[in-house]
From TrEMBL:
This is Stage 0 sporulation protein A homolog. It comes from Hungatella effluvii. One of its GO terms (cellular component) is protein-DNA complex. The modification 4-aspartylphosphate is found at residue 55. One of its GO terms (molecular function) is phosphorelay response regulator activity.
Amino acid sequence: MKSPRTVLIVDDEEKIVEVMQTYLEKDGYQVLGAYDGTTALRLWKENDVSLILLDLMLPDIMGEQICQMIRLNSRVPIIMLTARTEETDLIKGLQMGADDYIYKPFSPRAVVAKVGAVLRRTESDELISMPVSYKQGKLVIDFDNMSVTVRGEKAGLTPTEFKILMTMAKAPNRTFTREQLITYALDDDFDGYDRSIDTYIKGIRAKIEEDRKDPSYILTVHGLGYKFAGEKE
């Protein structure tokens, strides 16, 4: 039997932690709670955490800093909990490695649904092995063999272009900042500026889109980055 997934809730408001723990445990999750950043980092290191719900405003370490510290060693999904609604705060959090945002005040049921959606997305990313087709086979991505065909013809993507496309295609409709694409897709292979990602995206679009000026697969999310909008068949 598969063991329950563990969610770490980090918030200095004890009531929020208690309420969310109740709802998540009812949905079958194991839950750890922390009211400050120091405890959160210790619990994350000591346990097999599947996802982190992380408040931005903590008494000792800011949530963005915790996210940044965790991202140095792990890609565990992180959902930020925040009362801030400024776009600059959202961009900053995404740049530091957050996977998603939930704005306060929130419905506990909505948070549970978001946790399930993010976990399904990240877990399905790891299971993709067979070639995946989009738009009745017009685009086929073979993740194992690192190949892409468009209307039956090899697309001719470079290794770097393929890594970027693969990263986005494995998490459809998730917005990636340029910094995240460098971190997740290129790692130590990349030696350039974040705006170089725009050039790679342009190259990918030229090879897979029917109309690169009106793309249907790789969409621009203005002010944030890019996302892959193809639906698997």
